[in-house]
Amino acid sequence: MNGLYTHGSSPRDQMQEWEKRALDKFLAKMSDKEKPFPCIPATIGFSKNQLRYGFVGDPRENSTLTELSSLLTSYTELSSKIGNYTSLIVFYETPESMNDNTVEEFEQLFWNHLNGLSSLDKFDWPEDIPTDPHDPIWEFCFHGEKYFMYCATPAHKNRKSRHFDVMMLAITPRWVLQEFNKSQSYARRIKAHVRERLSKYDSISIHPDLNTYGSEDNFEWRQYFLRDDDTSLSKCPYHRVLKFLGIDK
């Protein structure tokens, strides 16, 4: 099913079975009162119906990247009209054969898709954002917008906050996070609650890479894909200049 949807407007009669299952699983996860999802801003966005949903194909197929690019372009063009807690939730058609994939294999797919998105991006990189991901103020940009990326996979077991039955992205505009952080005292309280929820939600300690954007010891790319243990990549796999799908950016 192509396009962007809210959880109240998704035409279920037009949805494939895997799409229905993925959306229902997500709605259950976000509305669970006994075991609340740790990211409080995300649950607020859900309750306010400001999340938008999209479905794309097999994460291993090149054609899926074109679908993802189209979704994110559409979302970027309307996100500012949705609300201060909006994010784009993308579900991948993840075949059961991928259930044996490791976290690291999903990690490679994730970075392939970020690289591929950049190769399809028709907009220039924002001038105020460095192109080197090892700069503390670097973040992923697409269609002129700055985004925080989150990836969940079926392979995550210990870190339930990063587990989902299919490969999934949550893509949040930077301006949403800036709005949230306007009141520093409020933001501090919420972040403390988030970490408290995380410690209960996951069966493993909070990943050491979770940090604050702009801090000298922070690299945003490390938080996009958290492994199921405390390890992380030593070098960011993102390369803005890349030949992908026959397109030379």
Automatic annotation (TrEMBL):
<dbReference type="InterPro" id="IPR014988">
    <property type="entry name" value="Uncharacterised_YqcI/YcgG"/>
</dbReference>
<dbReference type="Pfam" id="PF08892">
    <property type="entry name" value="YqcI_YcgG"/>
</dbReference>
<protein>
    <submittedName>
        <fullName>YqcI/YcgG family protein</fullName>
    </submittedName>
</protein>
